[in-house]
Design a protein that fits this description.
The chain has five helices and no strands. The chain is an all-alpha fold. The chain has a single domain (about 1-105), classed as Cytochrome c-like domain (Cytochrome Bc1 Complex, Chain D, domain 2), CATH 1.10.760.10. The relative contact order is 0.18. Bound molecules: heme C (HEC).
């Protein structure tokens, strides 16, 4: 029973890690031109700042469909282009962004209804 738990934990971490790695590749190919991860800046906010202040769900949602959250986020309707990626790629890149600041859970703003 104990071994079984360890196996589950191992599979879970490997699986999550894979998403973060895949998300990093998605970022480099599709977001890095506008969003830095080393605080260099660009057209959009650095993803460390995004990681501090947004939930993973909101990150995936905004990336997938910027129009759906622009009011809550305080941007103009066409601030960011809608990118032609798959749902899985948006989820992966949100995992990656979320992983940048893992110890700042309490700073995240929740989405207002
Ligand atoms: C053509 C430039 C451009 C590209 C490419 C781009 N973005 Fe953006 N993004 C913006 C701009 C501009 C904003 C809104 C203004 C700002 O962040 O300062 C924004 C905002 C965001 C926000 C909200 C930031 C916040 O916390 O308020 C998220 C999340 C985001 N982008 C994710 C992504 C992801 C994920 C990708 C790649 C899949 C991506 N963006 C690609 C320009 C871009």
């Amino acid at each position: 029973m104990k071994k079984f738990g360890i196996l589950i934990a191992l599979i879970a971490t490997t699986y999550l890690q894979a998403d973060v790695e895949a998300g990093k590749a998605v970022h480099q190919a599709n977001c890095a031109t506008c969003h830095s991860t080393d605080m260099r800046g660009g057209l959009g906010r650095d993803f460390n700042l995004v990681s501090y202040t947004r939930t993973k769900k909101d990150i995936a949602q905004y990336a997938k469909d910027p129009y759906s959250l622009y009011k809550e986020f305080g941007y103009s309707a066409n601030a960011m282009p809608t990118l032609p990626l798959t749902d899985k790629e948006f989820e992966d890149v949100a995992d990656y962004i979320d992983s940048l600041q893992p110890f700042k859970e309490w700073m995240k703003k929740t989405k207002k209804k």
